[in-house]
Amino acid sequence: MRKKFLMMVACGMLLTLSTGRAQTKSDGFKSLFDGKSLAGWHILGGKANYTIQDGAIVGEMQKGIANSFLATEKKYGDFILELDIKLEGTETNSGVQFRSQFNPEGNKGEGLVYGTQVDIDPTPRAWSGGIYDEARRNWLYPLDLNEAAKKAYKIEQYNKVRIEAIGDEVRVWINDTPTAVLIDTLDKTGIIGLQVHAVADHLAGKKVYFKDIRIKTENLAFTKLPTDVYVVNLKNNNLSEVEKKEGVSLLFNGVDAKQWRSIDGKEFPKKGWVVKDGEIRVLKSDGAESTNGRDIVTKKQYQAFDLSFDFKITEGANSGVKYFVTLKEETKGSAIGLEYQILDDANHPDAKLGKSGNRTMASLYDLITSQKHPRAPRAIGEWNRGRIVVTADNQVTHYLNGIKMVSYKRGSAEFKALVADSKYKDWPNFGEAVKGHILLQDHGDAVNFKNIKIKEL
Questions:
Q1: pLDDT tens digits along 120-134
Q2: Is 138 left (phi over 0), alpha (psi -120 to 50) or beta?
C-alpha cells in the first residue's frame, strides 16, 4: 500500500512538473539570462563590474565610473520584457534601457548608450517605472504624471518589471501596477541594457540585482489598462486608442483652428496668428500685450478638465495659457484669467518682476511661483509639454514636461489672500468663475503651439 501511495505521489509530481514546463514554454517567453553566464550580453559605456551571484546579475557601483550598461548583443523591436530588479539603498538609481542605441565615439571615446529607459528610483521622489530618454531627450514620463504608481516599487526588495513595447506604444508595469504609457516614434528597435548608474563617492559599493530576465517577441498583446492612466503621446496632433477611450479630444487638429476664435470676434484672427506645419503660431510684433492679432480663446467653455499642450518659445519671448476666461472684463490688453506663464526666464524682464519669481515659467502668473526643477524646462527653441489639471473640487495643478510645478485650490482662503496681494485685487472674485474659455496669449512674441488636447472631468 505504501509503495502504491509513493508511486501515486511521484506520478503526481511528475505531472505537475511537466505541466509547469508546458505552461512556461507555451507562454512564448524566452530567457535572456541562464543564471550562470553573461552569454549574449556585453558591457557598454562605463566600466562597472557585472558578476553573477545566486542566479542573479549583480552590478556594483564604483567611484569615478560613468553610467554603465550590460547590453544585449541582439537588437529588439516589438517585445514584452519581464525581469526582477533589486536596488540597494535609497540614494541610488538604475534603469532598463529598451530600443536604445550605442555611439562608440560618444562620451569622449568611451562609448555612449542613449535612448529610452525605464527608471528605477528608490529615492523619496519615487519615479520608479517612469520613462527617461538617456543622454538625449530627458524625462518623457516622470511619475508626477501618475501619483498612484509611486507606491508600486518596494525598497530593497525584488520588484517585477514588465515593459510592453508594441508598435509605437510602450506600457510599463511595476509589480503589476501600470506606471507609464508612452506613444513614441523615434526608435523602432534597439538594444536592451541593464544600468549601473554613476554615483557619488559615498555610494560606491552599492549593488543592483537583475534576475529572471525573459522576453517574448511573437503573438504580442498589451495588458489591459485600468481607466485614467495618463498617456504621453509624442505623435503630433494625434489621439491614441487609449486616449480616445478615456474621453480625450483634440482642441487643434493640426490643419485648422475651427475651435478657436479671437477675443474680439467669432472667428480665428486674420492677422497676427497662422496655422502652419501642424502648429498654431502667434507671430512676432511689438512685444506688447494683445496688440496685434489679439488673444485667441476656445469657442467652448470648460469647468473641470485635464488640458495638455506643447509650446516652443523664441529667445526673450513671453506668452501664456489662461483658463476660466469669461471675457466679461473690459480690458485693453490681454483678457483676464488664471495664467500658466510661458516665458524665457533668462532673457525677459518679467521674470524679475512680481514677487519671488511668480512670473516665471509654469508659475500661476503673479500669484504662485513654480518650483525650480533643473530638468523641467527645455532649451529655447525646443518643444515643452505643458499640462493644467482642474478637478471638480477646484484643485489645480500645473505641470511642465511631466513635472509638477504648481498646486493650489481655487476659492480657498489661501488663494483669496494671494489674489488680494496681486495685480488682480481689483477684479471681483478673480479666478473663481464656474466655467470659462481657454486662452492662448498674444504678447507680441513668436510662440508656437501644437498637440492641444483636453479631457473634461
A1: 999 999 999 999 999
A2: left
Q: Is 41 exposed, middle or buried (0-12, 13-18, 19+ CB in 10 A)?
A: buried
> How high is the pLDDT of residue 286?
78
Give the list of residues 6+ apart from residue 33 with CB closer than 8 angstroms, or none.
41, 57, 210, 211, 212, 213
pLDDT given at position 289 = 75
Alpha-carbon span 59 to 196, nearest angstrom: 6
- 25 φ/ψ angles, rounded to the nearest 5 degrees: -70, -40
User: For all residues of the chain together, what is the average pLDDT?
Assistant: 93
For the stretch 42-65, what's the b/e string if a residue is b when 16 or more beta carbons lie within 10 angstroms of its beta carbon? Answer: ebbbbebebeeeeebbbbbbbeeb
Contacts of 97 by beta carbon, 8 Å cutoff, 6+ apart:
69, 71, 113, 115, 116, 117, 134, 190, 191, 192, 193, 194, 195
Distance of CA 194 to the CA centre of its chain: 21
Tell me the per-residue pLDDT of 265-275, one tens digit each, with 9 for 90 and over.
999 999 999 99
Rounded CA-CA distance 262/293 in Å is 8
* Portion of the chain with pLDDT greater than 70, in percent: 94
22 has pLDDT over 70: no
Sorted by where each starts, the structural domains of the chain and their CATH numbers stand as: 30-231 (2.60.120.560), 237-456 (2.60.120.560)
Could you give phi then psi for residue 120, rounded to 5 degrees? -120, 110
For residue 393, the tally of other CB atoms under 10 A from its CB is 9
Phi-psi category of residue 38: left, alpha or beta, with phi > 0 → left and psi -120 to 50 → alpha: alpha
Look at phi and psi of residue 258 and say left if phi exceeds 0, alpha if psi is from -120 to 50, else beta. Answer: alpha
Q: What is the dihedral of CA 367, 373, 376, 381, to 10 degrees?
A: 80
- Nearest residue to 128 via CA among 156, 158, 80, 93: 93
From edge to edge, which strands make up the β-sheet containing 437-440?
260-262, 296-298, 437-440, 318-325, 338-343
pLDDT band at 288 (very low <50, low <70, confident <90, very high): confident
Largest CA distance in the chain: 100
Alpha carbons 254 and 242: distance in angstroms, whole number: 20
